[in-house]
Records
---
Amino acid sequence: MTSSLLPTYARADLAFEHGEGVWLTATDGVRYLDFGGGIAVASLGYGHPHLLAALREQGEKLWHTSNLFKIPQAEALAERLAAASFADFVFFTNSGAEALEGAIKTARKYQSACGRPEKFRIVAFKGAFHGRTMATLSAGGNPKYLEGFGPPLEGFDHAEFGDLASVEALIGPQTGAILVEPIQGEAGVRVGAPEFLRGLRALCDRHGLLLVLDEVQTGVGRTGRLFAHEFSGATPDIMAVAKGIGGGFPLGAFLTTREAGKGMVVGSHGTTYGGNPLGTAVGGAVLDVVLAPGFLDHVAKAGARLKQGLLALKDEHPGVVAGVRGEGLMLGVELRPPVGEFVAAARAQKLIVIPAGDNVARILPPLVIDDAEIDEGLRRLSAACAVFDAPALSEAAG
């Protein structure tokens, strides 16, 4: 059957019609254990009663008014995010890419507001992924994603992730900011060491730059902290979040200090849908759960259990698993067989994992996962690994 969807995705021949907790039920009735979370979006799993209640309550009242009027739900969520973070101001968007666009604009506008309009360049990193708009593609710098779209947006210089010397070498009179993911998700769950992030903060302070963090994938509890930069103690000036903040509802935001945001005055930025009553009501419900006492401790413990189990898989299947990386429930399995083949083998075990760079399979389950579900997922991962073990391959060849 021919689809009317633009063919920009090589979609698996699989569709889901129902979800509950960390489980998805396909249209043929088969249940899958979800270790992908819609690419870290389904932070509280599927059918969470508190999110459903917030969605129903607000949905029966008012969905949208536009930002020409005050939106109490957005005001309340912004206040909570600011209180739980470094920020003074929040701007809500519909997606992570939009949040990054706003963060980039805010960093540039800050330098202009300070009388330094020439300082528009931003040091970003090889392997980064910040979105699919022209600005965020240019910030990521991946030639594969930029091909055919004309010249990239001017103003981004790309350093080696984890290498402070390569960052400092790129800082010049036109540099105004540094943009970094604390953990590079798309590149293969490459973790920025605490000393690296602290070093970036020090470089920004020394050269009058802003530190801009992309926590679209790492934020809102994914790593066992509300935000991943908390592990390092390196505080940003601007930060983008999305994915898990809406628990599946399209919602993003960028957060900024009063100083870094001082150039963003009336008329300097806008959005039609961003921060509407329905989206921010759901975002508030997500924070109710994530900020509840003990929840982030649960994520940290679940992540430790899962990581320990993945390391055991490495010992059990050394010809398949080369290593394990990540923090909390944002983990990556370094593979020896091609990641695409491994993802397919996991799917055959009714387990969903996400491919990434560096031949890594991302493990991003909903944060509500329990011990029994972790153990079941590890059992299914082991069965997927067994497909690639030498004896299994020999038997298949025979």
---
Amino acid sequence: MRSQAAFAKLAGVCPVPASSGKTDRHRLNRGGRRQLNSALYRVVIVRMRFHQPTIDYVARRTTEGKTKKEIIRCLKRYLADEIYQMIKPHARAASVT
């Protein structure tokens, strides 16, 4: 992976503008690896139920007026960034050898 954005695109969680008229919003890219996207979705759903920082984030974004779908989209992108940070050192070590 070249960057976090490239990994997000591979996972299908990069934002795509979906604005119309006065609204300014994004949707998820429908491309990418569907199995990876599905795994991210499952992890986010479990975190929304049991992970206290995620529960707090969902509550805060809900009060800001975001829908559950939009919150899940954001959480999937954050999770993809976390995973990329975990696998990044391993990718560099593999490319050196």
---
Amino acid sequence: MSDLVLRNARLWGIPEPTDMTIRDGRILQHGRSQVGADASEYDLQGALVLPGLVDAHAHVDKTLFSGPWVPRTAGPGLAAAIEYGRVERGKYGVPHPDYIEALLTNMVVHGTTHARSHIDIDPDLGINAVHAVREAVDRLRGRIDVELVAFPQTGLLTSPGTLDYMREAVEAGVELVGGIDPGGFDGDAVGHLDHIFELAERYGIGLDIHLHDGDNLGVYEFDLIIERTKALSMQGKVTVSHAFALFDADPATRQRLIDDLAENRINVTSVAPRKVLPLRDLDAAGVAMGIGNDGVRDLWSPYGTGEMLERTLWFARNSGFSKDPDIELALEAATYGGAHILGLPDYGLAEGSRADLLVVQARNAPEAVMTHPQPDLVVKNGVVTAHTGSLSE
């Protein structure tokens, strides 16, 4: 692999342009260095370099991206949306590797280098969605890494047989166990959490639990999750997605939960909805938070593009952020926060880091979020994988 040199690069956090030399998939050094005659060089002319974007909460298996336009006709509420998706997906061949590949490609060319995707597991699908996503990822030949969560979308207890398929998915190499609204949807908070924690503990893997339940029920479920994390010594291996109860709770309860999350190293993720997570408070307590695109152009919603800078803008706007430090805090959630949650080693722009990065025409990080430009370059493991909106050969 020949050296890659980015000249006149404006690195996030470093005010003056510098050169970056990449060798053997890692950032060798900042500043001028000796490189071989076969080195690939790009003069960035002061363009901004960011670490590769991390989508910490996606549902790529559900997507219809590049496929037919399907008007959403589901009834109101979570249960109606779940049933609508279960009934209608077969009509459109979902999960479809071509649609998944198209979405992942758009994610790649817009700077996403890593993602965590929840994959539907149920008695109708079995683990077919796992195979579909893996096929699509394989087609992209290392341009993006996707970590999978075995997700009981139609319920664990209310959909008999799902637990067996969850176990099959884990034995097939899926990296995490998922869960969904243990009390509000599955009807038995204690039983649901007992099953998924037992499964994760048995196989020595992590958990990522959807928690849309809010108010007192959501707080109760948070306490159950915290209790089990502590009892099973699973600190650092549990993530709560959506986590709407943190928005609903009174200030004292919210702070108590945040302190307990920090103590047990439980992470949270958000997809920038109306119920926005208190990022400033989470950051101050040391709780890692990631941002994700959730579902993109699927039977749940016609919205989304898979572009993480755009999703970061949504989060910043919905949070009421307008000051540069707050906008950068949102970007940190879409980069370093997600990297922490996914357990990515040697992530970032420091010398010695894995060379996953993107180059955008922006003078600073807040401007990159506000304008969310098409990256000029995307680099994965030291190789240019996309250039001005197209995959590189």
